């Protein structure tokens, strides 16, 4: 599958994978901050952004997409950064290809199986419930979401997926049906008897419950060199809540300055 992607800078390659309901431009700010030192790729994953749609949406399939992307662009020894869903894709790829990465950064996600997240199911239910044939402006969609989803940040995040496919005709960039059918797979844990023993940094938000201390032994069993860092005050959306602190952690781990400001 040929993924749409954005590209910045030159030098050591870095690939940044976004999370569920996200897209490549969610990581443009961070990507540009490290582009002075690195060749940064931020692809849209399948069923997201401007990448192709398919009925299959699973971590192994997305890891295969990543492998194809790396081969297609002749990327050697990349540093892989993944957030949330993208973090599980990155972990899957690293465990399957432990000798092909330079370093691994996982942001606010664990390899474990998660219980169903009401926020995720609520978001996709509300998006699928909007009849885009009956609206013609983004404001109308935002008004509908405002009555259904109380969190303004989540609403804004959702709205980034809305675009005009024709004049006055709105559409979602997400393949909502495929993602909805695959929700159980997205909450599932990573199963692997392999290890990635290269350098690994796991960053978690101090206000997030995605990576509790109880998950650390599991992380260490799969990623024995993993270092766990917490950004206090940050939610699951670490890159939005604490971009400067995230930049500082990346600077130390990547051993090159990530400039912020």
Structure overview:
- With 261 residues, the protein is of the alpha/beta class.
- It folds into two domains: 5-113 and 190-254, Rossmann fold; 118-181.
- Helices cover 37% and strands 18% of the residues.
- The strands form two sheets. The chain has a seven-stranded mixed β-sheet with strand order 1-3-2-4-5-8-9, sandwiched between helices. Strands 6-7 form a two-stranded antiparallel ribbon.
- The protein is globular.
Task: State the gist of this model.
By secondary structure, the protein is an alpha/beta fold. The chain has 11 helices and 9 strands.
Overall 3D form: globular
Structural class: alpha/beta
Radius of gyration: 18 Å
Low-confidence stretches: none
Helix proportion range: 25-40%
Distance between the termini: 36 Å
Overall average pLDDT: 93
Q: CATH architecture of the largest domain, please?
A: 3-Layer(aba) Sandwich
Count helical runs. 11
Main β-sheet, spatial strand arrangement:
1-3-2-4-5-8-9
Number of domains: 2
Which features would summarize this protein structure in a list?
single chain; 261 residues; Rossmann fold; 2 domains; 7-stranded mixed β-sheet; 9 strands; 18% strand
Task: Explain the layout of strands and helices.
Layout: E1 5-8, E2 12-17, H1 28-34, E3 38-43, H2 59-72, E4 79-83, H3 85-96, E5 103-107, H4 118-128, H5 138-148, H6 152-159, E6 162-166, E7 169-172, H7 176-181, H8 183-187, E8 200-205, H9 216-222, E9 226-231, H10 238-241, H11 243-254
Helix pairs in contact: 2-3
